[in-house]
Design brief:
Blueprint (H helix, E strand, L loop, with lengths): L1 H7 L19 H9 L4 H26 L8 H8 L8 H12 L9 H18 L8 H16 L1 E2 L1 H20 L4 H26 L5 E2 L9 H27 L4 H15 L3 H11 L12 H27 L2 H9 L4 H31 L11 H11 L8 H28 L6
Antiparallel strand pairs: 1-2
Helix pairs in contact: 5-10, 5-16, 6-7, 7-8, 8-9, 10-11, 10-13, 10-15, 10-16, 11-13, 12-13, 13-15, 14-15, 15-17
């Protein structure tokens, strides 16, 4: 009886069973492939077709890239070594890299100046792009455009100082007048800045030889990818605040300000950029005083900035229209004036909504800087189409040069896109 009773008592474990690994088809790479690549028969067929297409492309391009030559002195020498084989002639990149990056007229011994300006750009942009950084670093961000101007162009140190004083005077005038009216603050800042620049120009011309100078480099000597970066960074930086001003002006209750902004936006959006570049090259100089010698680079910056600011204004206007009316009433209920309400309540929300559209325009604008080659500015594409392919040594090298240009533009545009996605995730506070 005792044995029978002992076997009838249920067994209770005192320790947990060790966890078993998940089945092979329920975790890891196999599960990911089943969920994303072979979830259905249609997905499986598309995956196989895509893999076959990639195989065809890589089978044709990888041997051409891997077997490329880097040390020859001309295309004819490349062909002589290859003896009919299909391979890239990357020697054009190793021999003409300086022209592709800096143009063919910028002095070789001064490459350190634009290189230093490019490195300092990251330190200047960091406080703006990553707003968790201490605000004291914004002081260098404000000074950077004038430092970069002096490094790249050289000349008298008084020129960037006068430009900085002019912008400071415009900011002071804006802060004093914007409390009364936004339009008064905007136009007052423009007038104050131009008065300082007009007076400072005569001072610089009178004492330029008596103050520290770097070797001056004319704008016509700028070129290569450096010129694309300069145009892209400058025009994007200027077009965003101008686009905000145009968007706010289009919503203004003052009919004159509203219709000026409407006509400007609709006219600029209805004209191709290449037309504006021809205007900058040929006609814009007639709008300045006869004795004024306005640089072509400045004229191109004005036109590209006007073009992109019109599109950014419409993107921001869409962000402003997306906000509920209660957000505008919140500023009034708190006793804020127009400038405070826009700065603290309205614009932060509207700009967050507008991030994808602004980034899209910025990427398109950076790629459109290659259009300056049609007005004889030797940017990266202009250098390829002009001096490099015109030389007898490299006439006929296309894929290598254009592929290098595409790679440079892709790296910059992809970086902008990735930053915008990070910024959207960083500012996605609506659903937290």
């Amino acid at each position: 009886m005792s044995d029978t009773h002992a076997h009838s008592v249920a067994f209770v474990r005192e320790t947990a069973i060790p966890p078993s690994p998940a089945p092979v088809n329920a975790a890891g790479p196999i599960k990911w492939m089943r969920d994303n690549l072979f979830a259905t028969w249609a997905n499986a067929l598309l995956t196989v077709a895509a893999l076959y297409f990639l195989y065809i492309v890589l089978a044709a391009t990888l041997p051409w890239i891997v077997g490329g030559l880097w040390t020859t002195g001309s295309l004819a020498e490349c062909r002589e070594i290859l003896q009919g084989k299909s391979a890239a002639c990357f020697s054009v990149l190793t021999e003409r890299w300086n022209q592709l990056l800096f143009g063919f007229k910028y002095p070789d011994e001064l490459y350190w100046r634009p290189g230093l300006a490019f490195v300092l750009l990251f330190f200047a942009a960091a406080p703006v792009l990553f707003f968790d950084m201490p605000r004291k670093f914004l002081a260098f961000t404000v000074l950077y455009p004038f430092i970069a101007y002096w490094l790249i162009w050289g000349g008298s140190i008084l020129s960037p100082i006068v430009a900085l004083v002019g912008f400071s005077a415009g900011y002071v005038a804006y802060s004093k007048l914007v409390t009364r009216n936004f339009a008064a603050g905007f136009f007052g800042s423009v007038v104050a800045a131009f008065v300082v620049w007009f007076i400072g120009g005569y001072i610089v011309g009178a004492v330029a030889s008596e103050n520290p100078m770097l070797e001056a480099v004319p704008s016509r000597d700028l070129g290569g990818f450096m010129l694309n970066l300069m145009l892209g960074v400058t025009c994007v930086s200027l077009s965003i605040p101008l686009g905000i001003a145009l968007a706010l002006g289009r919503q203004s209750s003052m009919p004159l300000i509203k219709w000026i902004c409407v006509i400007f936006i609709e006219f600029i959006r209805g004209v191709p950029l290449i037309t504006l570049l021809f205007v900058a090259s040929v006609m814009l100089a007639y709008f300045f005083p006869p004795e004024a010698n306005v640089d072509l680079f400045l004229r191109v910056v004005i036109m590209i900035t006007m073009f992109s600011s019109a599109y950014i204004a419409e993107v921001i206007r869409g962000g402003l229209a997306a906000l509920p009316k209660g957000q505008y009433e919140a500023g009034d209920s708190l006793g804020l004036d127009y400038a405070q309400s826009m700065r603290l309540i309205i614009l932060p929300q509207a700009l967050k909504i507008s991030i994808p559209g602004i980034v899209n325009i910025a990427v398109g604008l950076f790629k459109d800087t290659t259009l300056v080659s049609v007005i004889s500015m030797f940017d990266l594409v202009g250098m390829i189409r002009g001096p490099i392919l015109a030389s007898t040594d490299w006439n006929g090298v296309y894929w290598e040069l254009l592929g290098f240009a595409a790679l440079l533009f892709f790296v910059v545009c992809y970086g902008i896109s990735q930053y915008s996605q990070w910024l959207e995730r960083r500012l996605a506070t609506d659903h937290r």
